[in-house]
Every structure is written in C-alpha cells, then in structure tokens.
Amino acid sequence: MPEIRPDIPGAIGSGLMVLLGAGAIWAARDYSDLGAVFPRTVGALLVALGCVYILLVLIGRTRQASASDGSSMRRTLVAVVMLAWGFALGPLGFLPSGAAAMAALLLIAHHERWTLRTALLYGLSTSVILLGMYALFKHALQVPLP
Amino acid sequence: MGSLDFLLAALSPLNLLLALGSVVAGTVIGALPGLTATMAVAVLVPFTFTMAPAAALIALGAIYTGAIYGGAYAAILLNTPGTPSSIATTFDGYPMARKGDGDLALTLACLSSVVGGLVGAGFLLVLAPPMATVALKFGPVEYFWLGLFGLTLIASLGEGSTIKGLIGGGLGLLLSMVGVAEVGGDIRFVGEFKALLGGVDVVSALIGLYCIPVLIDLVATPVAHLEAGKQVASFRLAEAFGILRRSRVNLLRSSIIGTVVGILPGAGGSIASLVAYSETKRGSARREHFGKGEPDGVIATESANNATVGGGFIPTLVLGIPGTPPDAIILGALLVQGIRTGPTLFTQQAPIVYTFIWGLILATLIMLPVGLLIGRFAFRSIVAIPKAVLVPGVALLTVLGSFAVHNNIHEVQQMVLLGVAAWGVGRLGFSASPIVLGLILGTIAERGFVQGHLIGGARGSILAEFFARPISIAIIFFIVLGLFWPWWAARRIRLAGERNA
C-alpha cells in the first residue's frame, strides 16, 4: 500500500495565502468604503481557508498529491529563461532576445547527447520557426514587434 | 438577416478555409500529451486578432473543438490522454487498440465527437437566444449573484481538495482587483508598479497560467512527448456506423450530459466525459466489458467532451461567464476584438454571433474528414517532432500571443510572472483553473455588488435590492445547488473509478 503523506507543500502554500490575505486586508485600509469591501472579504476568506487547510494538515486529514517525476533543475532553468525573455524583450528586441531564449530552451529540453547533425537540424528548425513567426506577425499581421 | 443568410455568411470560402485550418491545428495540438485544448486556444489566439470578429470566433471555436477531439489519438493509441478531456477515453480506447481495434476506436471517437459537437452546437443555437432574452432583464444585482454562482463552482475545479480550489479562486479574485477600481476609482494592489494601473490583462494572464506550467513540466523528463503507437490499418466506417446505430441512446444521452456540464461555469470536458462514462456504464447491459475495450465507453466520453464546446459557449456568449476554461480565453479574445459578450450580443451584433454558431456547426462537420484522414497523417508526423524543438516553438507562441494583445511588453512580463507563479503554486497543489475563474468572475461580481449597493441605497433598502428580486432568488437557489456540485461530481467520479477497477 502506498504511504499516505501529509500535504506539507499544501500547508506551505496555504501559509503563503494567509499572508497574502492578511496583506490584502491591510492594504484595504487606504481604500474607500465600497472599494474596500471585496479586498477585505476576499482577504478574510483567504486567511480563513488557509488556516483551515493548515489545521487539516496538522490533524492528518490531508493527503499529498503524488510528486511529479523529472529534473527540477531543468524546470527551474525554463522558468528562469522565460522570465529573462520577458524582461529582455524590451531592451534587446524581439529577434535577439527570442534567438537567445529559444537556443537556451532547446539546450534545456534536449536530454540526449548532442551530435553535429542534431545540433544543425534542431538549430535550423528553431531558427526557421523564429524567423517565420517574426515575418508573419511583423509583416503579415502588422504587429509592431520590438 | 435570416438564418439562411447567417449560414451562407458562415459558408464563405474564407470561413471554410479558416475552419479547416483551425480544426487541423487544434487536432494536432490536442493530440500532443501535455498540451491541452485551453493551451491550443491560448497559443493560437493572436492569429485571430486581425480577423473579422465572426471569422475569429469561428477559428477559435474550430481550434477548440479540434483540440478536444485530438486528445483521443494519444488516449486510444498510447494510453496517454492528449488533453484532460480524454482521460476517460483511455479506459476503453486503449484496450481496444491493444486488441487490434485501434482503427475502429479512432473512427468511433471521430464520429462520436462530431455527433456530440453537433448536439452541443444545436443547443447553443436553440437555447442561447431565449436565454439572452431572459438575461436582458438582469440588473447589477443579478450579475453579482451570477458571479457568485460561478465562484461557488470553483470548488469543483480544485484537483483533489475543495479548500485548495477555493483558495485558488480567492487568489484569482485578488488578481481581478489589481489596478484602478471600475467604480470609485481606488488604485488597488499596484504599489510602485505603474504598469499595473490598467489591471491584469485577462488574455495574457490566461496564456501564462495555462501554458507556462505545461512548458516547464514538459522539459523535466527525457521521455518523448509521443511515441509511435499501434499501427492504424483502416477506417472500418461501416462497422463504426453499425455500432453507433445500436448505441444511439448512449450517444444522445452522453452528448446531452456534455452540453449540460459545459453550461456550468468552469466545468469542462474532463468532468463531462467522466460523468457520461459513469452513466453509460451504469445503464449498460454489458457493464462487465467496460474497461476491457467496450466501444460504448469511447462513444460516451468522446461525444460528451465535444458537446461541452457548444454547451460552454451558452453562458460565455449570453452572460459573459465562461462555461469551460478555453471559453475564458475566447472571452478575452473577444474583448480584444471590441465585442462585449452578454445578452445584447444577440440583438445588437446578431450577424456576428449567428454566423459564428453556424461556423461552429460547419467546423464540427469538417472534423469528420479531418479526423478520419488528415488527423491520422498529422498524428504520424507529430510523432517525429522532437520535444527539444517543440518547447521553444510553443514558448515563442506564448510570448507572441501575450504581446500581440495590446502590443505591450508589460503584458509579456505579466504573462511570464503569472505563469511561473502558477507553476510554483501548482507544485504546492493549487491548480490554475480556479485562479482563472476567480480572475474573470471577480470583476463581474464586484461591479454588480457595488452598483447594486448604490442602487439599493438610493431606493432605501439594500437588502431588498439583493434578496427580493425574483431572478436573484432563482440564482441564489442555484448557488445553494452549486454548493452540492463538488460532492456530487466527486461521487460520480469515484463511482466511475470503482466500476472501472
């Protein structure tokens, strides 16, 4: 029988939501009466539900979902690359930032050994996708890409 | 303009070409395990921004319907659901493929998807206009209660935990309040980030929330996103038609279940197909064959999940409340087009909405040849796309999609920040769908509440304004009913699982 583990990640998340809810209630001090109704209500709801979930974890009434397999390092790298892409888009422009980010993603997503043939084929495919989409959006759809 | 005119407008060569291309694109993306129908709509949405509104809607509807069907390929041939909507298709689809009936299962899935899609679209055509007439009587208070009704259904979207679903909804509600308040003009949760004054852009947020976590998880393992499955030899059309004729009650019942589940805000194809599967198994004389390659199982799940497409459009178009997660993206895309969904859509912009409904029916019919012919070839070719090329390509579409909404770099940053945050909270067990529903319904509920409060104050009784109007009372009744939904759905799913085991 699989071991039933308490949902510690869920409790951590709920703790964060309690803080977020408390922050919303605190921020609502500066709003008008009507403008503060929803932030206060939702903030209180987050605090209450977060506390209830933490309590359920403490009394052993929750079960952790099965952890996902695979490399956490690769996941984190993709997150970092996407964030960097979003913030480099303005200063670097669409093509340079896109080329750098797509090359990085290509490297992260490829798990096997690199051969010259694979590098050329994948590099060429990714370049065609980038340039094709650039041409389509910039010239055909008239989107002013940076 | 009459019905025939709208049909003829939908039949224009451009619309037909769009529907064909979109069904193919949707089918291909839907067939890739990990890429959902919501993601298919999200990454392809920027292509519709320069189209005429009716054409854009037809394209989005066709992508959606194609993606829901596309999920059946991997479910039947690889025992891996291409989209969450096709989870239940694996129960009998894969055993059929293992027995050498993969071709029959695929043909059955295609025909059932078409019938389910047509039933859903038919209900949309018949039900939406009278519902819009009723919705014209809605005031701010009714919209407040409707928003609340949708929020009560959030509980059903949490994966495993109702409380986590509600917490996710609360997070979405907070996101909906960022920026300048619509009534009163308070600047909320902006801090020093002036770029947030306009609030969180719905389309960019949805692209981030739905696509970035999938992308991040796609790279984690070396396992190919798709492997060559069982060979598909022929169509076995005559045999499939024979089975469908015998299972016509199942086909119709499952399609209706799918439509009804689609109408419920936030509930999508995965719930519909599980409920339909459970009902079919319960009422079948061949109950013991389910889970071992019973064609009725495939018919039930595939007709139900495609029926949610038309069903989901009913609240989306009539009330501006998304029926299913992909509808939330389509709702955002319509706002970009300058179309405000709601009851007046059917009177003030009737040509657009009726052309779209006929377009959706045509796209569903196009799915027949696409599913039977093109889909099979496309499926074979996408097997060859390496994950290392797929990931940068999809990432590029997310960046392009979020930028193209308003040509605004800040929205790309919002998209990636929210996407990475969604991946983070996803690791803690909070799913994206409740957050999305909170984000969309928050604005509707708050606007209704504030306006209702002001009107009630002016009339002398705020309580009467909120609790004494007939339509409000009816919606409050449904809210109470909605609170029982998670319990009912969980019971159905549990029973389906038990029977399958």
SS element count, helices of chain B: 22
- Total helix count of chain A? 5
Order of helices and strands of chain B: HHHHHHHHEEHHHHHHHHHHHHHH
Sum up the overall morphology of chain B in one term. Answer: globular
Summing up helix and strand content along with how strands pair, one would put the structural category of chain B as: mainly alpha
Number of separate domains of chain A: 2
Number of domains of chain B: 1
Count all strands of chain A and give the number.
0
Structural class of chain A: mainly alpha
What portion of the residues of chain A fall into strands of 2 or more residues?
under 5%
- Strands of the widest sheet of chain B, in order across it, are 1-2
Uncertain stretches of 5 or more adjacent residues of chain B: none
List the helices and strands and how they pair.
The complex is a heterodimer of chains A (146) and B (501).
Chain A: H1 8-27, H2 33-58, H3 72-92, H4 94-109, H5 116-140
Helix pairs in contact in A: 1-2, 3-4, 4-5
Chain B: H1 3-10, H2 13-31, H3 37-44, H4 53-78, H5 89-98, H6 102-135, H7 140-152, H8 162-176, E1 179-180, E2 187-188, H9 202-218, H10 237-246, H11 248-263, H12 269-283, H13 295-319, H14 325-336, H15 345-348, H16 350-382, H17 387-406, H18 409-427, H19 432-459, H20 462-467, H21 470-483, H22 485-500
Antiparallel strand pairs in B: 1-2
